[in-house]
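Hi Prof. W.,

I finally got the histidine kinase prediction working! I wasn't sure whether to trim anything, so I left the full sequence exactly as given:
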Amino acid sequence: MRDLLPDQVRRWLADLPPLWRDGPPAMLRGLAVGLLAITLNPVLFVLSVVSLALIPAAGLGFAAFPVVTSVVRWRVNLSRRLAAGSGVPIAVPYLPTPTDASYGKWERFRHIVRDPATWKDFAWLIPGALAGGVCGLLAALLPLYGLEGILGIPIFLTMILDWYGYGIFWPIDNAFEAVLTIPQGALFLAIGLAGARWLTWIEATFASFFLRPNASANLAQRVHQLTVTRAETVDAQAAELRRIERDLHDGAQARLVSLSMSLGLAEELLRNDLEQAAALLAEARQSSGEALRDLRDLVRGIHPPVLAERGLDGAVRALALAVPLHVSVDVDLPGRPPAPVESAAYFAVAEILTNVAKHSHASTAWVRLTHRDGRLAIQVGDNGHGGADPANGSGLRGIERRLAAFDGIMSVSSPPGGPTVVIMELPCELSSPRTSPSSGTA
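And this is what came out:
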């Protein structure tokens, strides 16, 4: 919810005391939790029971129960998002849906029924309605009651009725009562805002006992993730091999063929036309130099020598110097990552900086590399016009595939108008510790 606010408003909220910074969002979160719990949970529980009852009766449950389950999962995922805002993240435990399991088919029904998370969601609906209704509404109504006391809304309404002659049964000293309600309302408001965070945390913790994945669900998700990662890695390796083959065929191989033809013609002309033979030999020497340059470029595309010699720090600084805009580089790595991870990180930064130079219309960019808690964190940003989307660009999608081979992740923040920030993380351990990290500007 707070992520939707402008940056200036978020900075202003960050400077507030914890009670006023975290209390109102917790109150709104509690209101959402309570209203969803008392309205949707009982309805979805009844629909689930009815759809299950229709299975032996008319057979309609085979088609209805998966549909109802999808709505239940949508509702449960809303609770997961609200719980994450309360500081209790709950992972999604659902098994991957088979590609041929569309709605109305037996495969879909069997998949839904065999998923343990289906029944955990069903078991949570009524207890979740009770816990969410009590904790959520109490978290919202207690601060609102205090706010009502500060504003003196009922007292002032009574005074207005007295003025118009409708409050003949109310006491005359309403103004004095309104003043007395202000400190009482302030006390209830402070207690309510402080308790809202605690109450929403209790509700989220209670929900996590039902909704968090068990060991089998974690294992199934991990197997699915590794299967997808392996397929993407194989595709990426095949594409890389095709690129190398294409570069060899169109570059060095073509130049070597031209070199061979020039040398053959020069050999024939040596007997009759020395001047023409010398020209062909000069052309052959030029072709050999160009072929050597193509081979060096190809080697750099596979594993750059600067990466092997100077490590990720020096290689990223060399990339920054080659970009036609000001790029600041800040590196805090007390050692070197493993060679495959180092190569993946280097090419990811190179691809993003290339996109910045080509498409962002930025004047400055920055690269930050750090290592914390066993993860290599890379941040690349620019002050361009934004609008970068991995779904619409093969470059960013290729980076995701490259990082996925190492269980890495990437997130892109690029609103229209900028700035663009790409954050990547790769799990790894560092070796060859150095005495001091380096940082600077390239």
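The first helix runs from residue 7 to 14. Does that look reasonable to you?

Thanks,
D.
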